[in-house]
Write a structure and sequence with these properties.
The protein is an alpha/beta fold. Among the domains are: 266 residues, TIM Barrel; 38 residues, no CATH class. Helix content is 52%, strand content 7%. The strands form three sheets. Strands 5-6-7-8-9 form a five-stranded parallel beta sheet, covered by helices on one side. Strands 1-2 form a two-stranded parallel ribbon. Helix 14 links the parallel strand 8 and strand 9. Helix 11 crosses helix 12. The protein is globular and about 65 Å long. The relative contact order is 0.12. It comes from Oxobacter pfennigii.
């Protein structure tokens, strides 16, 4: 057995313990750096590096070599070619090479009824052409543009996936459960991010409260379909960044945000899937709500009181964050390590804690890199649990999956709907044709929802 494989198994065990509520051997470390950080750290021109995938492997490898993490520390979520082809207004690359996210409006306030009636069809037919200018054209051109964008995305993602697979093996990172990763949003965040924008949704809550509430319920199936992977697993992770909550009055939060968000997280947990939420901004007003989420929900906090969070949530949920990346720029090495000690003393006792910063480091210039490395080294070497004992796990029982049918949509065909108009695909052929043809529906759905 190679050293890398041994290390991968040890690291995997840390997170297996963590996700089951056991005390791990030491505090796991899971930090991440985007493609922009990696390219700049490796000395590449950012604009060229965004387009030239030949730069990606060396940039990612350098970060893996030099920054400690128990999970793969590099990532890329936005590939520029697809957005350029689509003439995206939602994600726009600046002249320096950064992907920017201006606020755009994909839905007019008088269109709520259309969204509520058929949310996915509305998104495809109305929202997409408004946020991707190249789709606002005749049907033939629209089809060609979409096909080019889809092909470019799949090509870039294949290159990225090949590189990250090699790096996981080379450096012995924790092993991810195959086909068990996901991403989704709270239903109100779907409406705000994709359709109405921050200003629009705040206004709508006051002007059309019943329509906003109905729209949140209507998009729950989309949020679940986005978030539940092909093979749900407690060792998998569906990531949910939280956006609108901290900017809402509590009575509005309780009515419009929380019920459908909790419904989505509960359904993910019931399916057997691990859930990790990024608690963006300051959620201290809503900390008692967070307690209601299913046990062992992972929560990374950007701001707030770590002592209060540990006291309120630490016996039920898995915590992280709070460490200010700004300190890595302004503090001395000793001050930076002392901050890590402080947070570890508060959050690590009893387990249910992994180390991460309050947010990702955007560019190398945002921090003193020696401070960053020193903090990671300290956590890696000084957080063994004295009361650790090796645990045995019960085999995970199959979860309760929400319906995967997603039927009744004009722009999404289930296999049963397809078969009604293609009765010739039957018998032995159906066994092979059904999963193949259905997989393409899934691929289109994933591309659309990830692009938005």
């Amino acid at each position: 057995m190679t050293d890398a494989l041994n290390l991968a198994q040890e690291r995997t065990r840390l997170f297996q313990d963590l996700k089951r509520g056991f005390i791990p051997k030491r505090v796991p470390i899971s930090v991440g750096y985007g493609k922009e950080f990696c390219l700049l750290y490796a000395g590449h021109d950012l604009l060229e590096g965004q387009w030239n995938s030949a730069f990606w492997e060396s940039a990612f490898d350098k970060v893996c070599q030099e920054f400690i993490s128990d999970t793969l520390p590099v990532s890329s979520f936005r590939f520029p070619a697809a957005f350029q082809i689509l003439e995206s207004k939602q994600f726009v690359m600046s002249s320096s090479g950064f992907m920017q996210h201006p606020e755009v409006i994909g839905m007019e306030p008088e269109e709520y009824d259309e969204l509520i009636k058929a949310p996915y069809d509305f998104i495809v037919s109305k929202v997409l052409p408004r946020v991707f200018a190249a789709l606002d054209t005749d049907p033939t051109t629209r089809s060609i543009v979409f096909a080019k964008a889809m092909k470019s995305f799949l090509d870039d993602f294949a290159v990225y996936g090949g590189i990250t697979g090699k790096l996981r093996q080379k450096y012995g990172y924790a092993i991810s459960s195959p086909l068990s990763g996901g991403f989704t949003l709270a239903p109100l965040d779907i409406i705000a991010d994709w359709a109405r924008g921050f200003t629009g949704i705040v206004t709508d809550i006051r002007r059309f409260p019943e329509k906003v509430e109905a729209a949140c319920e209507a998009v729950v199936p989309i949020a679940l379909k986005m978030g539940i992977p092909p093979k749900p697993s407690i060792d998998g992770t569906t990531f949910i960044p939280l956006h609108m909550g901290p900017f809402m009055r509590e009575k509005d939060f309780a009515k419009f945000y929380w019920p459908t968000f909790k419904k989505v997280v509960q359904a993910l947990a019931d399916s057997g899937q691990g859930v990790s939420i990024f608690v963006e901004q300051n959620w201290m007003r809503f900390i008692d709500y967070l307690y209601e989420l299913p046990e062992n929900t992972q929560m990374k906090f950007e701001y707030g009181d770590p002592k209060l969070v540990k006291d309120k949530l630490g016996k039920k949920h898995i915590l992280s964050g709070f460490y200010p990346v700004t300190l890595l720029k302004t503090g001395t090495k000793e001050q930076c390590i002392d901050k890590a000690k402080e947070l570890i003393d508060i959050l690590a006792p009893g387990g249910r804690y992994w180390f991460d910063f309050d947010k990702s480091v955007l560019v190398p210039e945002n921090v003193n890199l020696e401070n960053l490395k020193a903090v990671l080294q300290y956590v890696y070497e000084n957080t063994n649990y004295s009361d650790y004992k090796e645990n045995t796990y019960e085999e995970q029982k199959p979860g309760v999956l929400p319906s995967r049918e997603f039927a009744g949509h004009k722009y999404y065909k289930t296999w049963n709907e397809y078969r009604e108009t293609h009765p010739e695909v039957t018998g032995k052929a159906e066994k092979f044709a059904a999963p193949v043809l259905q997989s393409y529906e899934e691929t289109i759905f994933r591309f659309i929802t990830s692009a938005l």
